[in-house]
């Protein structure tokens, strides 16, 4: 068998530079499945799915920002590396 | 219990078993087809999305055993894909005789290692234009794909519990009165909503 071409579902996709964007489809499918068993009224299903997707993506973005601020600014202030 | 009754009491074993076999099938059986379809879209979208990102390598009960415990909750789909991965994509290492994925410069061949007349798939140096049947995923693509497929299993666990156990939902979106007769402020609020 040859491996000359990319085969979907068999080989990994080449999204190494854009991996962080994959949080959006993951959050969307989690919201789809979770809200399918949680919303009492299915007429409100899609607004709930969109709202939950935005909450997940927004929450992860805020966590990422918080980690960046702590690692990039707070820790160097509290414990500066020798010689910097 | 008839399938059209959306308010079963106690355990609904048939719905639970169906939910274990196929994501969303339990809700479908209980007379909520739209819920079942959307639950299946969520679980299978995550699972197949994980495979699309990381390839078949993300479903591996040998090399990622703990992750596969979570993925197994997707049901027979996960076990089937793992079986295909182990039997059609892996081969024995010629030195250790343990199954593994192929390196880019190897190809899968059948050889009689023990001279007992039984051939087994073994990795051998690749000849021109040949290679392993799949590319092993590494780094973030492997991590994200494995995570997505495992989240699919965890999500399906919630969906299986929803099918197995009675809920307070009704078809019109109101809480079922039999399950909210008391219960403090939340119960009072739900009863008030139900009376509207």
**Series of secondary-structure elements of chain A, N-terminal to C-terminal:** HH
Order of helices and strands of chain B: HHHHHEEEEHH
Mean pLDDT of chain B: 83
- Please summarize the sheet with the most strands of chain A: none
Major β-sheet strand ordering of chain B = 1-2
Inertia-based shape of chain A: flat
Q: Over the alpha carbons, how many angstroms does the gyration radius of chain B reach? A: 23 Å
Judging from the principal axes of the Cα atoms, what is the shape of chain B?
A: elongated
Number of strands of chain A: 0
User: Structural class given helices, strands, pairing of chain A?
Assistant: mainly alpha
The average pLDDT score of chain A comes to 90
* Helix content estimate of chain B: 40-55%
Number of helices of chain B: 7
Strand content of chain A: under 5%
Poorly predicted spans of chain B: 170-185
> Per DSSP, what share of the residues of chain B sits in E-state strands of 2 or more residues?
5-15%
Query: Low-confidence parts of chain A lasting 5 or more residues at pLDDT below 50?
Result: none
Largest interface: A-B, 35 and 57 residues
The span between the termini of chain B is 29 Å
**What is the count of β-strands of chain B?**
4
């Amino acid at each position: 068998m040859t491996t000359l071409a990319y085969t979907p579902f068999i080989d990994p996709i080449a999204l190494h530079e854009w991996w962080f964007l994959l949080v959006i489809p993951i959050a969307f499918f989690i919201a789809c499945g979770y809200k399918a068993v949680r919303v009492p009224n299915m007429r409100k299903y899609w607004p709930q799915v969109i709202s939950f997707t935005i909450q997940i993506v927004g929450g992860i973005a805020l966590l990422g920002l918080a980690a960046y601020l702590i690692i990039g600014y707070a820790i160097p202030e509290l414990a500066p590396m020798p010689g910097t | 219990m008839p399938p059209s009754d959306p308010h079963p009491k106690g355990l609904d074993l048939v719905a639970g078993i169906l939910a274990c076999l196929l994501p969303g099938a339990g809700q479908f059986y209980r007379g909520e087809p739209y819920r079942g379809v959307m639950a299946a879209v969520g679980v299978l979208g995550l699972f197949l999305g994980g495979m699309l990102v990381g390839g078949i390598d993300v479903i591996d009960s040998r090399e990622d055993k703990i992750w596969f415990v979570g993925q197994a909750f997707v049901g027979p789909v996960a076990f089937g894909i793992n079986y295909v991965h182990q039997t059609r994509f892996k081969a024995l290492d010629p030195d250790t005789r343990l199954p593994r994925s192929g390196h880019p410069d190897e190809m899968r061949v059948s050889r009689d290692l023990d001279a007992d007349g039984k051939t087994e798939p073994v990795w051998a140096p690749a000849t021109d234009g040949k290679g392993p049947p799949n590319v092993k995923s590494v780094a973030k693509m492997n991590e994200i794909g494995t995570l997505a497929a495992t989240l699919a299993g965890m999500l399906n666990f919630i969906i299986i519990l929803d099918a197995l156990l009675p809920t307070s939902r009704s078809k019109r979106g109101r809480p079922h009165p039999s399950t909210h007769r008391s219960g403090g402020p939340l119960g009072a609020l739900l009863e008030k909503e139900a009376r509207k």
